[in-house]
Fold this protein.
Amino acid sequence: MSTDPRQTVIAVDLGGTNIRAALCNRQGSILKRHKQLTLADEGPQAVINRIVESIRRVMPDTDPASVKAVAVASPGPLDPFTGVVMYAPNLSGWIDIPLRAILQERLQLPVAIGNDANLAALGEQRYGAGRGMKDMVYVTISTGIGGGVILNNQMVLGMRGLAAEIGHTTLDIHAGWTHAGVPGSFEGYASGTGIARLAQHKLREGRPSLMVELAGGHIDAVTAREVSEAAQHNDPLALEIVAEVARIIGLGFVNLLHLYDPAIIVVGGSVSLMGDMLFEPVRQTVQQYAMPPYRNRPIVRAALGDDCGLLGAAALAFDLE
Amino acid sequence: MSTDPRQTVIAVDLGGTNIRAALCNRQGSILKRHKQLTLADEGPQAVINRIVESIRRVMPDTDPASVKAVAVASPGPLDPFTGVVMYAPNLSGWIDIPLRAILQERLQLPVAIGNDANLAALGEQRYGAGRGMKDMVYVTISTGIGGGVILNNQMVLGMRGLAAEIGHTTLDIHAGWTHAGVPGSFEGYASGTGIARLAQHKLREGRPSLMVELAGGHIDAVTAREVSEAAQHNDPLALEIVAEVARIIGLGFVNLLHLYDPAIIVVGGSVSLMGDMLFEPVRQTVQQYAMPPYRNRPIVRAALGDDCGLLGAAALAFDLE
């Protein structure tokens, strides 16, 4: 057991909509929370002021010296080694912001920053669905596809902290389209956006489906949510789309198994809420196409929900010793 | 500087044809070599006896105590943590052979074993084309496609040492064929075998080419070597095949850049001998499809030739401290 009296850290999850801060202990319990709107259009200075305010709100009243460090999960790309946020699509004006240096100066505490998807991975590995596994791949499937990889209990970062850009890998070099510049990418096919595009494409071919009714009669309004709901009602076209997407996700996971050799794949994000309707055919695809030694690695739902980034930041802060 | 008087290690490269052993120093210089035929069909016991003999042949005569450890680069899959070779396609009877334990017992020295492609990567990173880079991806393209990844100066191993199976990742989920079980795999497309298959396919469509003449008039005898040679003579079909293969390799490298974020990609194997004729269009493909922060990472030829596995084993043996 550590004899360090500083047994808490402050974790921050900086999002396009909300800033969330939490005081956490070593067990990953959240002792105190604060949440406020990011109001990103007011620019970096105002947002950083709010980050500092949120951190102060969760400081322990009686014993501020018990806080050993602060870590921030931020949208990327960012450089975890220099602590600079290079660019953040949902935060206006965030270009080359030295977030770590600014916060260290203002808080007089050690600060670390990490990419939100990488830290969600670390959170799930330390405190969530990957607990006890030293090698884990985390994939989040919602509007986009992102992820993080933990090998030998450490985040896989690469030269500039840009590893594990899982969504931006090609699964079809002959696809006639690119997404974020990459032909036939995992994200282009299997993100919520990709699923909606596939559904709308099939509906425009004139195939009937409950999905249109669920979307108020407008094909353009069909999203992954309507696909999921219609599939739950055994709508044939929705089931066909789920099967097609599950095969693609399964083959994407085969690549991740063969490249990272994880003990487990943990899946988060809104699309993962489809549950076994999606996960079962994904697992079957992996059984079919992965090489024998990689089969039977568990593929499971993430456990921490919205707190994954926050708890990953807490783990990162505790690792700062 | 280390004050350890044991400044040498013995490295072994166990291949289907030859067993090679070398006495190496910390600078990666080979002080003494021995090579003999593997004679794999005599079975594991005979091969292990020859490994031990080769090791004894390169022991320093005057000062055997200067040897700190032994490491063996072996065909895989093998478990680097337990030291067991699970299976070796080119070595008859090698199933679950506890190679490390056997050698430790017989040599009374610390022994490590590693997958030959992973150790080739480590050799190139410590002593070859990736020297000075802490994050490197190594890809070998010859009969098959294999590789190894070094991040933060350490081999990426995964749960069972089976990471970086680069050749067995899908680049085309809609391909109508599988190779080693994986549809549209990198190895199926771009290995020497894949290149030969593509060339033969195009030749059977009746396209004229110097390749057939170079192969003694037999389409079936056309290999990647004839493709390369005909392309050097500006044969149109051969140039078309090189361009197609370079695009596939380039897109495969985009995936590796996005997943591992290496500072450099080092390419070995017989197909890499095509040189800039292949490398230039590969680099152009990467420039076109990689996301901006990953462009301009050098893509270079391996430097160690046949000694890459041997020197990787030497690095592994030195790491055993």
